[in-house]
Specification:
With 156 residues, the chain is an alpha+beta fold. It contains 5 helices and 7 strands, in the order H-E-H-H-E-E-E-E-H-E-E-H. The two termini are 31 Å apart.
Length: 156
């Protein structure tokens, strides 16, 4: 399966910039993996095999299963999300079987707003809202390098 943008390029159209969902989507999974490891370590510190050890092992197993689920869903989201700027338009695609796309001609872009939290500034991610003339607005959430993305749209 190829990239969506490669399938929809028009004659003479070139991809100028590509970005993706930021790795911060893996944050909850990372925290759950840490919690599972801590619970496993606590169960290993129990001097005698008793109820505390069994509870910690059971909790570590449950948290580990949830961590696997969160890891897979975050990976799948990053894998199925594409955000590109071509010399003609902005294209954003999410989804695999059920697909949602947003396309706007660069000539119709009125403004591009970037919203970054403190963590977003530190780790270089944020939300980008694209306002179009007569086409409404679209917000693309938690993308990597939102300022470079904005600059690729506004600089011509």
């Amino acid at each position: 399966m190829g990239r969506y943008i490669d399938d929809i390029l028009q004659p003479g159209e070139k991809v100028l910039y590509s970005t993706n969902a930021h790795w911060v989507f893996f944050g909850p999974a990372i925290l759950l993996w840490i919690l599972a490891a801590v619970l496993l370590a606590v169960s290993g510190m129990a001097v005698v095999a008793g109820p505390l050890m069994l509870v910690c092992l059971a909790l570590a197993g449950v948290v580990g299963i949830v961590a696997v689920y969160k890891t897979v869903t975050a990976w799948f989201h990053r894998w199925t999300t594409e955000t590109d700027v071509t010399n003609f338009r902005v294209v954003h695609k999410t989804g695999f079987i059920s697909r949602k796309t947003f396309e706007m001609s660069l000539d119709k872009v009125e403004s591009v707003d970037v919203i970054q939290s403190i963590m977003g500034r530190l780790f270089d991610y944020g939300d980008v809202t694209i306002m179009g003339v007569g086409e409404g607005k679209e917000t693309i959430t938690t993308i990597a390098s939102p300022l470079a993305f904005r600059n690729s749209i506004t600089a011509r």
